[in-house]
Amino acid sequence: MLTFIQIVLGFGIAVLMLLKGHFLSGIVGGTGTGIAIVFVMSLFMYFVPKLKPINTIPAYFLGLITFFGTHPKLDVAEISVIIGTIMLGFAFAWVTENVNSRLAK
Fold it and tell me: What is the DSSP string of 7-49?
């Protein structure tokens, strides 16, 4: 469950980077997205190790990769589908693990 939370938080961090990049692009031009990514990732790399129960950095990067790999529009419907797909994948993994552990007994 903690891994799922970290992936969704990584997804949220990616959305934050994109929104901040759009905002900064209006101020500094084309380099706004790059500045936003460096700024947000610097804060991320500083604060995440301090979060003891959810400090697995690769899980956050899975959320980032999922967001930027799917190239979604920033609307609720499309982001909901992606998060729903992640939830479904975790549910199938949980069921498979439980079935395997019961069959092994």
Answer: HHHHHHHHHHHHHHHHHHHHHHGGGHHHHHHHHHHHHHHHHGG
pTM listed for this prediction = 0.76
CA atoms within 13 A on the CB side of 81: 8
Give the whole-angstrom CA distance, residue 63 versus residue 74: 15
Q: What is the C-alpha separation between 19 and 37, in angstroms, rounded?
A: 10
Q: Which helix (H) or strand (E) holds 68?
A: helix 57-70
DSSP state of 53: T
- What does the block give as tokens for 1? 């469950």
Whether the Cβ atoms of residue 82 and residue 11 lie closer than 8 Å to each other = yes
The whole-number pLDDT of residue 26 equals: 87
